[in-house]
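Attaching the record inline, Q. Sequence:
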Amino acid sequence: MLQGVATTGSRTLRTLQKEPKCESVLFRSVHLFGAEAYGTSVSMIGCPRLAILRGHMVGGWVFALFLCVPVFAWASDLAIRNVHVFDSYDGFDDETRSIIVHNGTISEVLDNGSAIPSTLKVIDGDGGYLLPGFIDAHVHILVPRCQSFSVFSRGNVQFDRALSEEMMSVLIDFGITTIRSPATPTMEGLALRDDLNAGRIKGPYALASAELINDGRMTADDLRFYVRNALQHRPDYFKVYAGLHPWQVKTVIDEAHKHGVPVIGHLGRTSWAEAIKHKIDFLTHAVSWSEKTLKPEYRKAYREARHQVGAMRARLDWLEWLDLESNEVTSMIKALAASRVPVDPTLVVYDAKFSAPDDRRYRLNANVNVVPTLKSDWSECRGLAHNWTRDDFKRWRRLFPKLQSLVRLMHERGVILMTGSDTANEWVIPGESLHQEFELLVETGIPPRDVLRMTGATAAEALGLDDRGVIGQGYKADLVLLTDNPETNITNTRSIIWVMKDGQIVSGRAKSD
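Structure, as predicted:
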């Protein structure tokens, strides 16, 4: 039991409030010696696994002695034995191995039968399948409450911090230990990123962009000012959106790169080919829905369809007219592969938000209530396909395989693909949706081993995170243990026994020798 007191004479004050897993310590009604800010409450955040605090009140000041012991299930130095280890290129080892973890980092990978130091706490993997923690490259960490789900009216969107924290905790339970948020309100979203990374709330390690830029009326000076003004909040990225002209996209990229910040593109008015010429760093989603990706003879009809039936229903026409062997598509894929610009296809967000009301894969999924408030919002709020007819939904089901075929072509022709879900769009279930993305990628014809690499080593390398995504010496002990082999059946990624982050079990239960 976590305890702590500060005493002064005969008076005893409780000074420690236990948060889950001792992620924060709160001193109430005291002045803390050496603190930068004094007052009636001082938070000591990101404590190094504090278990006991003893302090003495002297003249209104607390002089505290911190006695640190781990409060998680396992010590920071441990061994995981009897596991099949995933190699990004060779898949799972036939023989089981042992992993030695020191201070949250993998220090050794031992062959079967190698001696394990007797001083280590040992977790028995029981012949399970050990992978690097999953990386979801498309999670919006601040959740908007029930709106039209249209980013074109973001001025009216209200974001819910408490709901967002709940969602972050859920992601861990699904094996997701690292996320990238491609767009978030600059001040509030990047503050949440910082809280996640400092361990103040339960959730994955996060990278996050500043608020997306989508105003086609902004001048070059406006765009440069926006970038410079956001730098004080230390964004990991900037994001250019579908409404920007090519010259605007170039302006943002040039200014962001001056300050060493990469740029993510969710494009429309600007084609992927144009963005690649302007040195974009990342592209999101399987397609841009740009008329420039269609053959010239279909572009006017597509513009008219957007005007007549709206952007979402017009996407059905876009897919109908898309020619996978056209020069527009083949040259785009060639440019993507040559430039090494990574793409997160997010097949799941399209299939989920364009799912019919009686759909079982998303709307009646067993995990749809994992964050109940989100499910309630999705049910009550008008969605992007609110005006679709039953024939429209049937048409989507017929055309979606073409979108999957485009992703397969990208993979086969050398485009860097990462896994991403676009949580928490409508019916994109936190955590579960990444596993659904795995399934949809395998349905395209991409081998399960390649998909597992996309969510591990490939994503880590693309995001510049050279300390994770691989089970090897010197890499972070962000790990997921499964009962069943996901190379045999990709749905086995859900057979999670436990999840480890920084060498600590953060979800599930481990078996001790």
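The chain has a mean pLDDT of 85. The CA atoms of residues 80 and 123 lie 5 Å apart.

More tomorrow.
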